Amino acid sequence: MGRPRKALLDRTRIGRTALELVDETGDFTLPEVARRLGVQTASVYHHVDGRAGVIELLRDRVADGLDAGALDQRPWDTALTLWARSYRAAFAAHPRAIPMLMTAPVRAPRVIEQYERLAGLLLETGFAPEAVMPIITGLDNIVLGSALDMSAPQEMWVVAGDAEAPHLALAQSATARPARAERAFDLTLAGFVDHCRGLLEEGRPAPAPREASDHRTRSGSGDPSGTATTR
């Protein structure tokens, strides 16, 4: 009986293995990925365009947790909120990948497709084209910052004693980290979406004044005969 065949090397296995390394150590190298897969480094290069290519495979794997259907919801602010929560949950599962993904250009087609849908949603809603990328970037900042916060220590502000910073010590002791992270995200996202609503209203043209009809001009009343009625 022959030896079992090794699983064929493909982009899915490379991305999954690289993400495992990042989750464990915060980084990866192509030789490490190859070693864990039991292949030569050159074999990995046959499937990806170097380190940048593997980073995009990482991004694609993390994006598995995104709920693409959230962007089908209406109205727009509901879609934006649901997608942001899905986005945060996906990245919170892999916090060590966030710094790497935040500083690398987005090329993964499946991820680009979601941002294309988001941009389309904002434009169809009536946001000015020049407002769309600041909104998308701002949402990224809120979501990814909060995803990192979810893995932060229980006490981020180390206070030696109440005498050193009594107000901060009181505030920090009043809310445990999980609740603090959730409430901070809810507060920030709600404020962001509310600000976007304001931008939308500012960008809408003012309604044109209704032209007065000839008979109103003549009589100052709604009497089509032109004769004003006195009560």
UniProtKB/TrEMBL annotation:
Gene3D superfamilies assigned: Tetracycline Repressor, domain 2 (1.10.357.10)
Region (Disordered) residue spans: 200-231
Domain Tetracycline repressor TetR C-terminal: from-to ranges: 73-158
Residue ranges with Polar residues bias: 219-231
Domain of life: Bacteria
InterPro entries: Homeodomain-like_sf, HTH-type_TetR-like_transc_reg, Repressor_TetR_C, Tet_transcr_reg_TetR-rel_C_sf
Keywords linked to the UniProt accession: DNA-binding, Transcription, Transcription regulation
A Pfam family hit: TetR_C_1
Name of the protein this chain belongs to: TetR/AcrR family transcriptional regulator
Organism: Streptomyces plicatus
